[in-house]
Amino acid sequence: MDKEKYRDIAPYGPYDVAQAIVRLRNSPQFMIGLGELLSSDDAEARTAIDAFKARLPVILENVKTYEDFQRNVTAGMMIPTILKNSVGSFTFSGADLLDKDTPYLFISNHRDIVLDCTLLDYALLQSGMRLCEMAIGDNLLVNQFATDMFKLNGGITVKRDLPMREKYLESIRLSEYFIESITEAHQSIWVAQKSGRSKDGIDNTNSAIIKMLYLSKKRTGVSFAELIKACNIVPVAISYEYDPCDINKGREEISKLLHGGEYRKKKYEDLLNMLRGLRKYKGDIHLSFGTPLVDDFASPEEVAREVDRQIHLGYRLWDTNCFAYDYLEGTDRFASRYAGLDTKKFLDRYKGLKPDVRNFVLNSYANPVRSYLTETNAN
């Protein structure tokens, strides 16, 4: 695979990695950003962060590829620190059923701008598997520092704001990159099941993502079913007990409803949400690997439906999900699942919100339960 022809959208190659490392080592913003990202009031955590920052120059000296950065900086040091500071527990399941030598296209639900994929990488690292590249929208590349951080973590740029014809041609090119990476470079890739984070807790795959995969192959004689098998698609479900951005998401979506579907983000709003998602408390997190799609699928819609089915059944339904469902439905069906939850404290998180925003946020916790029940009843 000739990655040079994809240089503008591919993760950094060796030369670009070297240049980015020079910029980071000479950038006060990098160290300030790390301090903000990893900050904690806990004395032990601060000591660990100071030790991390002291070791960082030596670590960066040995970074030659973006995989080095992923493995040694992000998955190797930053994620464990984030888990220690703002996560109750992180668990994962299903990785033992995957082949360590097979490249996969991981399609997951999307709740957090950065953590969804970085936690997947961390699980892959713990399982002795190769880390993956991740597809990200170019709206996140707001400056050189942000671009460097994403590209050093295997970021594939998805260009969004293009005229219709250019967008179509870029989709074909992105399709080529995905397929060549998986089938020729044996490189796994992560992509969210739809553009943007799920604000309402309803995780349904946009079939346009599946259609995009086939764009570069549909005139070559390769059938759709063959292409899907070659991509080794694995659905991934990630479940957070608490969403640090839940209120912001609720306000954004209600604002859209009040303004005809429009919501104009401020320039650095996504980065602020990213920082909030990384630093604030998330409770327990579970990541569930599904099984590769090996059937003869006839259409993008069929593939999307199977991805949805596996994600919905792969949820880890936390006490917050079960309580929100019972509270909104007026039942006690899952009462035993949240017996240890301080339900008053949970509701007090949202007591100052406008009723429509509060209702939206609570439904965002309840909807995974509804999706899970729909799948189990269908079976």
Radius of gyration over C-alpha positions, nearest whole angstrom: 21 Å
Q: What structural class results from the helix and strand content?
A: alpha/beta
Low-confidence parts: none
Described by the principal axes of the CA atoms, the overall outline is globular
β-strand number? 7
State the order of secondary-structure elements, H for helix, E for strand.
Answer: HHHHEEHEHEHEHHEHHEHHHH
Outline the biggest β-sheet: 7 strands, mixed
Helix content: 40-55%
| Straight-line distance between termini | 42 Å
Number of domains: 2
Number of helices: 15
Strand order of the largest sheet: 1-7-6-2-5-3-4
Tell me, rounded to a whole number, the average pLDDT: 91
Strand proportion: 5-15%
Give the helix/strand layout.
Layout: H1 14-25, H2 28-38, H3 43-61, H4 66-86, E1 89-93, E2 105-108, H5 115-126, E3 133-137, H6 144-151, E4 155-158, H7 164-183, E5 189-192, H8 207-214, H9 224-231, E6 233-240, H10 246-258, H11 269-279, E7 284-289, H12 300-314, H13 319-329, H14 343-348, H15 355-378
Parallel strand pairs: 1-7, 2-5, 2-6, 3-4, 3-5
Antiparallel strand pairs: 6-7
Helix pairs in contact: 3-4, 4-5, 8-12, 10-15, 12-15, 13-15
